[in-house]
Amino acid sequence: MRLIGMLDSPYVRRVAISLDVLGVAFDHEAVSVFSTFEKFKSINPVVKAPSLVCDDGTVLMDSSLILQFVEAAKTNGKSLWSKDSVQLLHEFRAVSLAMAACEKAVQCVYELHLRPMAAQYEPWLERVKGQLIAALSLLETEVANRQKDFERAVNQECITIAVVWQFIQSMLPDVVEKNDYIKIMKLSERMELTSSFIKYPPVGPGV
To answer: Is residue 203 part of a domain?
Structure first.
């Protein structure tokens, strides 16, 4: 399998780290949707990162769907999710908040770094920032309320939260005050020291 995309994308990095933790072999190809658009287009005409080129040539998109397929087809039952339905509900809650924060952060980055200032629409940007802060605030509460679940685990919720937090802090430090989210920050710091996170650092051209 081939994972296409730059590791400074939180979606690409999430997949790479998850596959490594699961012990699934893959080749990573650092192709940018910006600087190497035509090359990416030749692999996947949709030009969406991450793209996973499967063994039969089928191309999958969307980090969550890619990971769902990999766990179903490539891990012999190993999973980064709990098998207990009650615990799984909490994990889904945490990951959904992290992914919502990620989506809103990406929208902020595109607006602030790609759109000319004269064309930026401040009411919309403030709305997106508000959604980002709301998602992070709820996520901080979730991590605080289940602190023992996050102390040593290396599972999908820990991976996703840490990857998203690193992205937000690297791209929007003036929008998100890190000291407002101590529990998330501590979790991210722990995960960034693990072997899979070190192996797949957030390297890329950004925007």
So the answer is: no
